[in-house]
Amino acid sequence: MLTSPGWRGPISQHWTLLAFTSGLVLGGILTAALVWVAGGLVRPLLGQAGAAALVAASLVLLAREMGVLRFKLPERASQIPQSVFALGPVQSSFRFGFGLGTGARTHMTASLPYLALVGVAVLAEQAPVALLAGMGFGLGRAILAWTLALSPRSVGWEEDLARHSRLLRVLLAASAAAASLILAWG
């Protein structure tokens, strides 16, 4: 969690979660915008093949989640600097969230964020689509923190999630593969 369970400071945990979520969303939007701009160099060359590229990427990433293919995805597995956490609860939460929201300062356990990047790069013709994808990434990452904070049963919750994590990742990857097929040929 973003604060210690016994925190009795002047700022509620919900404010730190709002700051964290805002950072996640803004980080996701920034990354999606950069990928969309870079994708502008590729989209015109791909044309209809962009949908096929998304389908191929979704099937490869589904196979990775199922354990059929084993390969590392690019990531920066470094820690967020300690200096970020010395700024006070709200600003620290925002900056921590921003770093996680960019996807460039964290370990990714699932393949789906990479599929979203491919989708934005090869299919997002309009900027709002890319920005919504970035916002969705940030909000998706915030769900875990909010669910844990609002859960009446905080003990054992993370163990339950860990136990079902692989199944959830496979189901989400399969759903994304199906969605990309529908987008490509729908």
Mean pLDDT: 84
Shape: globular
| Quaternary form | single chain
pLDDT < 50 stretches:
none
Number of strands: 0
Major sheet size, sense and barrel closure: none
- The ordered string of helix (H) and strand (E) elements is HHHHHHH
In angstroms, what is the radius of gyration?
A: 18 Å
* Beta-strand content estimate: under 5%
Please characterize this protein's 3D structure:
By secondary structure, the protein is mainly α. It has one domain. The protein contains 7 helices and no strands. The longest helix is centred in the last third of the chain and has 29 residues, at 157-185.
Topology of this structure?
Elements: H1 13-39, H2 43-46, H3 49-65, H4 89-102, H5 112-123, H6 127-150, H7 157-185
Helix pairs in contact: 1-4, 1-5, 1-6, 3-5, 3-7
List keywords for this structure.
mainly alpha, 0% strand, 186 residues
Short description:
Helix content is 68%, strand content 0%. By secondary structure, it is mainly alpha-helical. The mean pLDDT is 84.
